[in-house]
Amino acid sequence: MKENDFLRWIAAQLPGRADVPINVGDDMAAVRRPEARSEPGRGSIGDMALLKIDQCLDQVHFDLRVHSAQAAGRKAVNRCLSDCAAMACRPAAILLSVALPQTADDAFAQALFTGCRDAAAAFDCPIVGGDTGVWDQRLAITVAAMAWAHSRPVSRSGAKAGDAICVTGQLGGSILGRHMTFTPRIEDAQRLVALADIRAMMDLSDGLAMDLPRLCHMSGVGAQVELARVPVHADAVRLANAGEGTGTTTAAMHALADGEDYELLFTLAQPEWTKLQGSWPAAPGGCQITRIGTVTGGGLVLVDVAGMAGKWPNGGWEHETARTHG
Amino acid sequence: MKENDFLRWIAAQLPGRADVPINVGDDMAAVRRPEARSEPGRGSIGDMALLKIDQCLDQVHFDLRVHSAQAAGRKAVNRCLSDCAAMACRPAAILLSVALPQTADDAFAQALFTGCRDAAAAFDCPIVGGDTGVWDQRLAITVAAMAWAHSRPVSRSGAKAGDAICVTGQLGGSILGRHMTFTPRIEDAQRLVALADIRAMMDLSDGLAMDLPRLCHMSGVGAQVELARVPVHADAVRLANAGEGTGTTTAAMHALADGEDYELLFTLAQPEWTKLQGSWPAAPGGCQITRIGTVTGGGLVLVDVAGMAGKWPNGGWEHETARTHG
Question: Which three-class secondary structure state does DSSP give residue B261?
Fold first, then answer.
């Protein structure tokens, strides 16, 4: 079963609930305090918790033959925090579960924990609990994040036909190193929602070619993307020049299909995009934002660099079985 | 580094925070909504979320050569829910992370998920998100639970000298099968806090000999336990008769030292214990509760079956490196 099929099977197993307004299929789930509905003045969105779990496995998401325990811990936490960015929330707490290989000594365990703690501390987020075990298998790190819904959380499902489709940063080639060292776009997401009405947002973990269809599916819309507008990272150019990668060849296709960008993909109405452009970057060091296309009523269209409209590529990183289902 | 040493090291890395009133070292962490403090009438305990993460590893916590995927999933969720029982809360949401072995087929993944879902559904708790990956290692299941603090959460730190020390159920020998099939004491915990002022509580996962000292440490108290009063499970008798186990020999020592009872250990003032005895069981099917000793000002004393006060045993299940630190 392919990843998306398994996600659909799981979603079908889970009945809708009034206390879970955002469920499997978004970057984080939203859980509402049940009593909030019956107490006058308490039914506010402040009584919602956003939740996420994400795992990081040795020789899948990092490689201890190359990367340090500290770098692995940092990435594990930052992957989870990237989902907080995708919901435009700030993390309130991190939980940490670690299955250590038997070869791990005290220094290894402490370095791993330090990497996790420092990544969370960069966003003033405490590690509040955890679970550590030892086994004769490779390192597995699992991170759960909780956030309070301070304002309306930005889900994947709000995109509307006519919206501008935008991304932060540049895409592609993260395998050359950025997948271990990225900073979650939490601050940029806060600036985005402060400056404009962002209708839908997600983080790019499996590549634009795989992730944009997910956002469209959740919103019940289509999209047209102009390949020439997709911001290409220098690493994608390097990969293309080296002839490496996942079977794609051009830098633009790397930008479309490579995973682990951890950039934000978002949509907003055209007037809001115009307004946002006028006030961005909101702060020094604010990232690049680029409009790459337009939300449509249905279907997925990729306009190639020659201006020819064509089919959406099958690229992106679809795992053999499900990866992210919440 | 031994488990308790690693827990202390981690705790020392985490600064105290006003928004984390219960931190690493209890059964669940408590996270307070920061704004709750500054809004009149909003600083109530209802704005606290309780959080827990717990992992279940193949050939550590279950064994797929013996147990089904569904049984493994059920145990993984129930272990986490047992911590909800320990805090006397009801779970509001479960997150699920699974690292599947490459040999796992669709039926395996679906059975695993079904086991998880059914365990949560038994307490009307939804699975709200997850993460599934595949690797060439054995199955690892990680479960995170969130609960709302409806009333004062019962932590490990409230025990006072003179309190009665009590346990639910019978202890020991869970390795014969109960460690896979137990029901978390969520309903019994609800009845306990409804009927009496429970001052401190935890669930017994590593054995009374290991866990009671933890509760005492968190409360800054000591304990005297009478071995003759410890309720011995028939499985502990079976183990003792078979001469098996962890080096201990008598059934009573199995009850003291075996892990994975998933019973509740709690303390309450003597008058409250008298009151509780008069109204228990509160419902048909309510479990046995037994007073096994008394909280003291300091030190740990085990009164043996002959009535001789002696040193606390070194038994219990201390993992080579830390296991539960939150």
Answer: coil
Structural domains of chain B ordered from first start: 3-148 (3.30.1330.10), 164-311 (3.90.650.10)
Q: Does B148 lie at the interface with A, CB-CB under 8 angstroms?
A: yes
Alpha-helical (H) ranges within A233-310 are: 234-242, 251-257, 270-279
| B-chain residues near A144 (CB < 8 A) | 51, 53, 95, 97, 144
Q: Which amino acid is at A87?
A: M
Residue B221 tokens, joined: 């108290």
Q: Which amino acid is at B231?
A: P
What pLDDT does A246 receive?
Answer: 53
CB contact under 8 A, A57 and B137: yes
What is the C-alpha to C-alpha distance for residues B66 and B73, in angstroms, rounded to an integer? 14
- Asked if B28 and B52 touch (Cβ cutoff 8 Å), the reply is yes
pLDDT of residue B201: 98
Sheet with A222-226: strands ordered across: A200-203, A264-268, A164-168, A289-296, A222-226, A300-303, A309-311
- Which two tokens mark B4? 């308790």
CA separation for the pair A145, B30 (Å, rounded): 13
pLDDT of the residue at A153: 86
Report strand pairing: B309-311 vs B264-268.
unpaired
- Could you read off the pLDDT of A165-190 as tens digits, one per residue? 999 999 999 999 999 999 999 999 99
* Nearest chain B alpha carbon to A59: B135
Q: How far apart are CA B321 and CA B326, in angstroms?
A: 14
The C-alpha atoms of residue A221 and residue A219 are separated, in whole angstroms, by 5
Judge whether A136 and A222 are in contact, CB under 8 Å.
Answer: no
Structure tokens at A275: 């307004």
Q: What is the pTM of this model?
A: 0.92
**Half-sphere exposure of residue A302: CA atoms within 13 angstroms, side-chain side:** 19
State ipTM. Answer: 0.91
> Which of A174-188, A287-301, B256-270, B297-311 bottoms out in mean pLDDT, i.e. has the lowest?
B297-311
Q: Provide φ and ψ at A217, rounded to 5°.
A: -60, -45
Nearest chain A alpha carbon to B95:
A53
B295: which 2 tokens? 């909280």
The answer, yes or no, to whether residue B321 has pLDDT greater than 80, is no
Rounded Cα gap, residues A245 and B304, in angstroms: 68
Partners of A265 in the β-ladder: A167, A202
- Residue B316 per-residue DSSP state: S
